[in-house]
Amino acid sequence: MVDDRLVVVKGGSVLRAFDTDGTDRWAFNIPGDVPGIPIAVDDQHVYVSTRKRLDAITRSGREAWTYEPDDEDVGPPTVVGNEVVVPVGDGLTALAHADGATRWHTETDGYGSVVVTPSAMFMAASGGRIIGLGTG
Predict the structure, then answer these.
(1) Read out DSSP for 97-129?
(2) Which residues contact 109 (CB under 8 A, 6 or more apart)?
């Protein structure tokens, strides 16, 4: 992940951050099973999913909050406005950036990453279908 101030890479169970000039900023050990799920970022946090949790790490490398749903798989995070949206079990859950509080949850039969437009969110579903949520 790269933005105008930070470069973040995930290697195994370690998340490393660098300034855009290559200066090493911090490292964070990710607890749990760390599959090849993409990370997401906003102006406050870096988000990384393991199979059973989502960690929000401050841009200075400290754990801000953790979301662990009851025995449900957690998919790749996507930043949407003031929320981070994650596939959880058979649905989508939106969490507040500031503290990880659940804002909403909806059941879907989709999976994988969420693609966001200004008026809708989309995700793949079984049978080659696409699920759309929103006004788009």
Answers:
(1) TTT--EEEEEE-SEEEEEEE-SSEEEEEEGGG-
(2) 90, 125, 126, 131
Average pLDDT over residues 44-60: 91
Residue linked to tokens 């909806």? 106
β-strands 54-58, 45-49 pairing: antiparallel
Question: In angstroms, what CA-CA distances link 89 with 35, 106, 127, 133?
Answer: 16, 11, 18, 17
- pLDDT, position 34: 66
pTM (whole model) above 0.70:
yes
Q: State pLDDT tens for residues 90-118.
A: 888 999 999 999 999 988 877 777 888 88
